[in-house]
Amino acid sequence: MRAQFVLSEIGVGLRRNLTMTFAVIVSVALSLSLFGGSLLMSDQVSTMKGYWYDKVNVSIFLCNKSDAQSDVNCAKGAVTEDQKKQILSDLHKMPIVERVAYESQDQAYKHYKEQFGNSPLSSSLTPDQMQESYRIKLKDPKKYQVIASAFNGRDGVQSVQDQKGILDNLFQLLGLMNRAALLVMAMMLIVALLLIVNTVRVSAFSRRRETGIMRLVGASGFYIQAPFIMEAAVAGLIGGGLACVFLVIGRYFTIDHGMALATKLQLINFVGWDAVLTKLPLILATSVLMPALAAFFALRKYLKV
């Protein structure tokens, strides 16, 4: 097969169906951008889970004098020194506990003022209204229920709270957003495939006389198909290249510069450039293979003379 012939036919096909080719390029670029973005979102969620689950604590809040008057769990009064010592002793005996930190009422009040100092409620609070607590780091964050069942309802304990539950809600929301992006990507991918099939069929129909003559003189099916398949692959590759550019620009302007989320949200460990760069070859490979296969199956009936 002469490469010059194939290249000339690719150029003719792209110019002849310029509008549809442009639509294919845009559809492929948008769908693969969403595909790459979804992969990065999955990496981001996994990174955040590993980072935050490692820092998650279980908190045992102890009864104070105010709770004794208003909370059923503290009906027997504020926590005593003996009860605190017993709780701490029991925690140290549990094999799932990695470490325990105590937070006094004064420390709790200080932390509250640091986080919610502008709240109208903060001016009316006093340290004696805050709760003492034990902050427990578990070796396995999934074992929260062991702590909850051991200390919920115990004298002097107001409540047992698991920070992992709050994080789970956040990650569920991120997961839903990621699935929504995948759904939109699938719809765009279907549109792109339909455009590719229609573009190839229009191109094949407009050149049916030439392909018929080539078939009659003994040209192989692959020889006839190659220009059309390569035409679709080139259009897809251009779309894939644009998708890669969109991902790189999106990462650069949302995290590093522009919105600068990495600076504004320092508590979030964002995915690095290595995660972006590893997705680009997959996007480019998909952008070539997907249109080429669609063109191959769309052309089969046009090879019959």
UniProtKB/TrEMBL annotation:
Where is it found, in Gene Ontology cellular component terms? plasma membrane
- Keywords from the UniProt entry: Cell cycle, Cell division, Cell membrane, Membrane, Transmembrane, Transmembrane helix
Q: Which Gene3D superfamilies match?
A: 3.30.70.3040
Source domain of life is Bacteria
The entry assigns this protein to a family as follows: Belongs to the ABC-4 integral membrane protein family. FtsX subfamily.
Q: What does this protein do?
A: Part of the ABC transporter FtsEX involved in cellular division.
Q: Which protein, by its recorded name, is this?
A: Cell division protein FtsX
Organism annotation: Streptomyces griseochromogenes
